[in-house]
Design goal:
Structural class: alpha/beta
Shape: globular
Number of domains: 3
Order of helices and strands: HHEHEHEHEHEHHHHHHEHHEEHEEHHHEE
Strand order of the largest sheet: 3-2-1-4-5-7-6
CATH superfamily of the largest domain: Vaccinia Virus protein VP39
CATH topology of the largest domain: Rossmann fold
Radius of gyration: 23 Å
Number of strands: 12
Organism: Thalassospira alkalitolerans
Protein name: Methyltransferase type 12 domain-containing protein
Distance between the termini: 57 Å
InterPro entries: Methyltransf_12, SAM-dependent_MTases_sf
Largest sheet: 7 strands, mixed
Helix content: 25-40%
Strand content: 15-25%
Length: about 450
Amino acid sequence: MSKKVRELYEQFPYPLRDPQEEKDRLLMPPMDTLSRVNHYGFAGRKNVDAGFRALVAGGGTGDSMVWLAEQLRDCGGQVTYLEPSQASTQVARARAEARGLVNVTYVNATIGEFAAMAPEKFDYINCAGVLHHLEDPEEGLRDLVSVLADDGCIGAMLYGEHGRLAVTEWRKMVAPLLPGKDLNEQLAMTRSLLSSLPEGNMLLKMGGGPGFIKGLLENDPEIVDLLLHPVECAYDVHGVYDFAASAGLDVAAFTGFFGFGGTGKAHYSIENHITDPRILRDLMALPLRDQQAFCERYSAAMPLHAFYLTRPNKVPSVAVMPDRDLCPWFFVAPSDSFFDDLLKYAGKPIVLADGTGNAVDLTGGPDLAKLLALFDGKTSFGDISIRLRDEILHKQPIDMNQIADNTLAAVWALFHKFDWMLASSLEGGGQQHDVERRLSVLAPK
């Protein structure tokens, strides 16, 4: 980590947080929700207990540290907060103290310095918005792998190359004006430029309009981190895969970070972008990473990439259908009237929605509610398939084993699309609900 980067975060701890607000709210970064980590990073089989150890590498002012420590508080799991900035650590520690969190160890060091200490291995490592600010990001990732348990998972976030084009162009624009100015002078200049942006400026479009700029002007650390950082790089989808491979890791899944309606993985699925069946067929024939790269360029709306990394061949894919002994459950809890509404509108076109923009069109028969009620976190895929075969499809005059499995896989794919459902073993970690979303049935028009 360069001297300028260290100085920046001492002067402007990031993100801007008031420890007193911990009394009234809990920030829950979606990438660090342990049910999601277990699902994607451990195929639902990790036992989150007193032996679970999490590392937040580059913890800033403590968002991920606080959320992980809260989730591990009751089971006895431990969090190590790693951050070179004393100013950021002071804020993070005050936030943890305000919440009464005692399962956190604080280490003031860089990633490289910490790896050289040869600590015990970690089950989960969060490293969000950090590696792209290092002089050698690949070395930083290798250092993280050196402290990762053999079956461990890394949740990472890197800047996106195409969705961040407005920031890249801004940095090019102001580069000739920066020499000779200290950070406070650069900030004053940037605030002046932001306050009088032309309507067609790319930064306005990237942020969604004047409200974005107003928010920036009220948050100096955000301006500095976004527009004046001395060291940064960005990655496209192929770059993310290559970056992971440089440390001997696989991309297990893309996930959400913020501003993606609860989950960001749907942005990487071509079915959510393309409706022309001929184009869709051609795209589906491409390797997955090429499909995802197409989505990134086509949407032009991915300012960052959040994803889980695992060692090769360590985690079975959950994209099609998890192993038959795992138990699916509603990560996004159904509304109180969800099952009644499914019965009420059986045979009619409906929309399932979670209130954050994620929705699917569906026409379900009267047995759909009966099937979905089995996704209770206690009944395995194998048992659900048997009951689907014997209790719902039993009247069909053909062998129903494969039909039941195919039907179950289709239902799983539908509800896994936006992480409405996850899967885990009964012995694994707690089956949390996404408290920011609720799954509802919208009446047919």
